[in-house]
Amino acid sequence: MRYAEIIVDLSAGAVDRLFTYSVPEGMEIGEGWQVEVPFGPRSLEGFVVSMKDHCDLPPEKVKAVRRAVWDYPVILPELLELAVWMHERYLCNLVDALRLMIPAQMRGDRVRARTRRVAHLLLTDGQAEKFIEENRRAKAQIELLRRLQQGDLDAAGLSPSALKGLVEKGAAVIVNQETRRTPTALKREERTQDPVLMPGQRRAVAELTDALERGGGRFLLNGVTGSGKTEVYIRLIRRALELGKTAIVLVPEIALTPQMVSWLHARFGADAAVLHSRLSVGERYDEWRRIRFGEARVVIGARSAVFAPLENIGAIVVDEEHESSYQSDKRPRYDAREIAWRRAEKHGGVLLLGSATPSISSYMRAMPGVRKENALTLIELRERVKGRPLPEVELVDMRGEFERGNHSIFSAKLSAALRECLDSGKQAVLFINRRGHSTFVSCRACGYVVKCGQCDVSMTYHQSENVLRCHYCGSELPPPKTCPKCGSRYIKYFGAGTQKVQEEVNRLFPDARTVRVDVDTTREKDAHEKLLERFRSGDANVMIGTQMIAKGLDFPHVTLVGVVAADMTLNLPDYRSVERTFQLITQVAGRAGRADDPGRVIVQTYEPDHYGVRLAAAQDYRAFYHQESAFRRRALYPPFTVIARIVYSAKDPGQAKTAAERAEEKLNAYIDESGMRQDVVQMRATEAPIKLLRGLSRWQVFLKMYFKGDLEGVSREMQALADGAPPEVQAELEINPSNLF
Ligand code: ADP
Ligand code: ZN
Ligand code: ZN
Fold it and tell me: Which atom of ligand 1 lies at the shortest distance from residue 230's CA?
């Protein structure tokens, strides 16, 4: 008799352990298979974690596996092992890690019938409007049509009569999921020729392929914007394929980097697969199967594509490695860079992190003196391809504009440059960071920003209570009526969003054809690509956007880039705000002058002397790194320390508070008992920066400790505390969270 040790597909601490089932004679299953098993009165799906030949339980207690859900192991051995590691490392249920390894639609009732059917709309937007016009009384059909415009839907969940109506009228079809779809992003491009490498690129490629041939390595590619990093990735991947290996390319968000997808597809054709959340249900499933069965050997995708079921991985590239989107903000709170690191090591492949503005923590690993097991090898590309100059960045001091009576959101210089750009038939990009929209209080006359006395981060204005609060330590201040520094009455919360900028451009430049790219204009499927296409085709000549437009875009006719308010991110209540500002300015500036026209970049700021702004303008990453890491070291911020917290949320504020205070007490005891006191910088229970979220009051136990401390021990203890919270309180542990609200 054979037995299977199974983890059931229920995310709950109580079932986060292996259950033993017998395998009926003739059923061919093994590790990594997805199966259906009886569980109490129910039937559940689960994953086989291991197999064995004997079982100590009495035979009548052991139930049999009902069936295999799929006729092949859905989780490869290496990924199974990775899930077990994640279970330990990120303190999640094992099944939470396993769930990341297969598309969601392969789990649960949705796949019970393997002939899953998907409804697909056949009409273009124009045709759909006409259809609605002509079928006005068919309310249910119209409603369904609207939903299908957002993407394919599982036929099983839809109104049968409405669907039948649409199908009969030729507006929709029901497709069997087995038919493969190619995501729209991959359809266009033809295969193209390789350009001749620049000397810097050639050296980088040689070093990387050398490592690949010798059994792997870890690298940080720091190349200025427009230095041709993508081409380096492509050559490395090409070599991996030649050696019979596979590759993964991670990008911050697929929708934001459509060009990367089309370039890779142009070079690797059907060898490339794309995995990301905006694909329709059917597309994602198809792509995953192509990868699992070795039909696609290069995978491009956002964070979760790091779990792609590839074997024999030769290279994992993480583009724009500094982006916070690589850190998952849901359980399991994994870091895709860390997973990439581990997978590359397991396969003897190359890990390549790339960025013009690496994260402080990655760059630190590339500096001398780092222990070998933590180190990255630095490769630099200091010049743009074809000897193109880096764009010249001009800083405009907005305090001076204000003094001269210009209260508009555009400086005289930016207005004039925009006028000139439009007159010469070129294109402009205007960048404004919405994340900082109306949150911090600053003086329009002198640029003074209200900061917390203990934390050196700006205070956040809470309109409902009319108070300024520090998001780190919780201290409060009434908002000042006049500027504490210069006495001006023009001190108010900062806020000029993308919409405002677009209105201003349209008002001041009636001949401008604007396109706006932000979360509001890109909600619908493919909306983002359509907007970019309008700009690429020249249909629009001014693009206004948020950080969405800062990354990876390559538009040859852009000669002017304007950063409307550079300080917006500088004063976010987060120790990473300077780093983020530096990254944004550098990245946005990098959008200019990418073809033969020289680029001009104008950055409006109230703090032209701030090192984050000044060094971004000089595009001097290394100098920035030295300043910023010195600041982090002094102020005891990561990567010199680690931040962890448990957030307690409850309907009743008293309960959240009590839970946090109890945990603080216990954690204090643990710290003393385990002799770690000297490693802990700060630990206390406080109200969370956002006290009320979705109707729940929030408290936290906040911990900052030195990097060298026993983080594993502490986090295990904190997880135990979180798990032991009373039932009426939700508790969530976060280690190095990307946001501290
Ligand atoms: P980065 O990611 O470093 O900002 P990209 O990879 O986007 O730079 O490359 C910038 C531009 O240069 C792209 O249009 C790319 O096609 C082009 N390019 C890259 N390498 C070469 C080369 N060796 N010769 C000619 N053009 C190149
Ligand atoms: Zn002032
Ligand atoms: Zn503070």
Answer: 6
CB 550 within 8 A of CB 449: no
Instruction: Single out the residue of 394, 255, 395 nearest to residue 325, CA to CA.
Output: 255
Nearest CA to ligand 1 atom 24: 195
Q: Are 705 and 680 in contact (CB under 8 A)?
A: yes
**How far is residue 262 CA from its own chain's centroid?**
20
Predicted pLDDT at 210: 98
230 Cβ below 6 A of ligand 1: yes
Supply the angle between the helices 139-149 and 160-168 in degrees, to the nearest 10. Answer: 80
Which residue has the CA at smallest separation from atom 5 of ligand 1?
228
pTM of this prediction?
Answer: 0.79
Considering only CA atoms, which residue is closest to atom 10 of ligand 1? Answer: 226
Of the candidates 315, 303, 227, the one whose C-alpha atom is nearest the C-alpha of residue 268 is 315
Residues 6+ apart with CB under 8 A from 643: 702, 703, 704, 735, 736, 737, 740
Beta strands 558-563 and 600-605 are parallel
Report angle CA 201, 204, 207 to the nearest 5 degrees.
Answer: 150
Separation of 201 CA from ligand 1 center, angstroms? 10
In tens, the pLDDT along 339-382 reads: 999 999 999 999 999 999 999 999 999 999 889 999 999 999 99
Tally of CB atoms within 10 A around 27: 16
Task: To the nearest 10°, report the CA torsion of 108, 72, 180, 110.
Answer: -10
User: Which run of H or E residues covers position 429?
Assistant: strand 427-431
Q: Please, which residues have CB within 8 angstroms of residue 42's CB and are 6 or more apart in sequence?
A: none
**In Å, what is the CA distance from 487 to each residue of 20, 458, 461, 610?**
74, 19, 19, 22
Which residue shows structure tokens 């003074």? 448
Across-strand partners of 462?
467
Apex 359 CA angle, 357 and 361, nearest 5: 145
Calpha distance 677→665 (Å, rounded): 14
